[in-house]
Specification:
This protein is of the alpha/beta class.
């Protein structure tokens, strides 16, 4: 881990404040971790000890961080033995939290329109990004979310208008609406109020509807499964827009020591292997997806 990143990471024994389950085998976990809550930025993650019987930690993207109250919040699906054991943990129990880790998103103030796309368990960084930029009046975020299971949030009929979004996408995330952040949903599962298809369909329609001058004020952010990220990277190329993607990889140490999460990227010096945990997880889409 670089010296700059190492200085921001805290190891804390955090109390579980709440742990709620939702349809589609989804969980939202809130943990007291005041040092990490002060330092976390959108796109960074935590490495959590799930259970004493599971020696390796598990990486979870940070969905929200509340510095004043000292907590972190995560959305996850219990895939694998470690996260299945984490799903059994209850409020009042303690977890070891190593966070925040990695390089997060960097917002370019010269492009005040932010289009944030989150798919499945890639949704959390987009919530975090929206939370951090919503108080900056000169920034205009739009969050698009895709899921094949019911969204683990309160969903309401959208009040905030979004030109260029097709008629079936009528609903939004209540929390984002309360923040004044527009959002829309997509799903291939026929969820009420969601576009029937992919969020990249919604994004393409929205970008096409923007006047050329407004497109030049736009930047993309994304997190989700690899096919989705590749589709978002193509969008960025098609519309000539800057795009940052948060990658999801299996990790062992989470702090750059094992190199188990290496990915191939393009650098000015040529192809190179980079560690997702500390060199990322956020990369420019053009250095990761070149075809």
């Amino acid at each position: 881990m670089s010296k700059a990143n190492r200085a921001t990471v805290a190891l804390e024994l955090g109390e579980i404040l709440s742990h709620d389950s939702f349809d589609g085998d989804q969980y939202i976990l809130r943990v007291r971790a005041p040092k990490a809550a002060r330092r976390a930025t959108p796109g960074t993650f935590a490495h959590i000890t799930c259970d004493r019987a599971v020696p390796l930690r598990r990486p979870l993207s940070i969905m929200r961080a509340e510095p004043a109250e000292g907590w972190l919040e995560f959305l996850y699906k219990p895939r694998g033995e470690g996260l299945r054991r984490l799903a059994a943990r209850r409020p009042g129990e303690m977890l070891s939290v190593l966070a925040p880790i990695g390089r997060g998103f960097v917002v370019d103030p010269a492009r005040p329109r932010l289009l944030a796309l989150g798919g499945g368990v890639g949704i959390p960084p987009m919530i975090f990004l929206a939370d951090r930029v919503r108080r900056q009046r000169d920034l205009e975020p739009l969050v698009l979310m895709g899921s094949e299971v019911p969204f683990p949030f309160e969903i309401v009929a959208a009040r905030l208008a979004v030109p260029g979004i097709d008629a079936p996408a009528t609903h939004a995330v209540a929390l984002l609406e309360d923040w004044g952040v527009a959002s829309r949903l997509a799903s291939n599962a026929g969820l009420t109020g969601a576009h029937l298809g992919f969020i990249t369909d919604l994004a393409r329609g929205w970008l096409r509807a923007l006047p050329p001058a407004e497109r030049q004020r736009t930047q993309l952010f994304a997190c989700g499964p690899t096919p989705m990220l590749k589709a978002v990277a193509k969008l960025a190329v098609d519309f000539d827009l800057p795009c940052q993607v948060a990658l999801e990889e299996f990790m062992a140490c989470g702090i750059g020591g094992c190199a188990g999460c290496n990915v191939l990227v393009q650098t000015p010096e040529g192809p190179a292997m980079k560690r997702v945990c500390v060199d990322g997880p956020v990369f420019e889409s053009r250095v990761v997806y070149t075809d």
